[in-house]
Amino acid sequence: MLCLPIAVILSSPLSGWILGRWNWRVLLIAEGALPFFWLVIWWAFIDDYPKDARWISAEERDYLEVTLREESRDLDSAKSDPSAKPDSFWRAMLNSGARCSIPLC
């Protein structure tokens, strides 16, 4: 929840400095390159599975593995049960009461 405000706080002065020093084209390229730098950091420090994470304790790792396994099993059983299959997305959207409030916005 804090990522967006922190990003605005950090990028606003940087954007102003780039615009004052160069132009909007440099700003576009510089801020477009930032996600690629973040990608390198993400790949280096974030693991795909709890079993690979070195920064959590053994108890947390076991708890996460058990919880993920149970959730996966519950999802698989819900997919195989035809009576639990929900209506299509569009049918649910058209039957929703929230659709009436969209034109008011």
What do you see in this structure?
- The protein is mainly α and 105 residues long.
- Helices cover 67% and strands 0% of the residues.
- The protein has helices at residues 3-21, 24-45, 58-80, 89-94.
- The radius of gyration is 23 Å and the shape is flat.
- 0% of the residues are buried.
Short note summarizing the structure:
With 105 residues, the chain is mainly alpha-helical. 67% of the residues lie in helices and 0% in strands.
Defining key terms:
flat, single chain, about 100 residues, mainly alpha, about 0% strand
Low-pLDDT residue intervals, each spanning 5 or more residues:
none
Helical content band? 55-70%
Given the C-alpha coordinates, what overall shape results? Answer: flat
Structural class: mainly alpha
**Largest sheet features:** none
The helix count comes to 4
Termini Cα gap: 25 Å
What does the radius of gyration come to?
23 Å
Order of helices and strands: HHHH
Q: How confident is the prediction overall: mean pLDDT?
A: 80
Percentage beta strand: under 5%
Q: What's the count of strands? A: 0
Task: Summarize the SSE layout with pairings.
Layout: H1 3-21, H2 24-45, H3 58-80, H4 89-94
Helix pairs in contact: 1-2
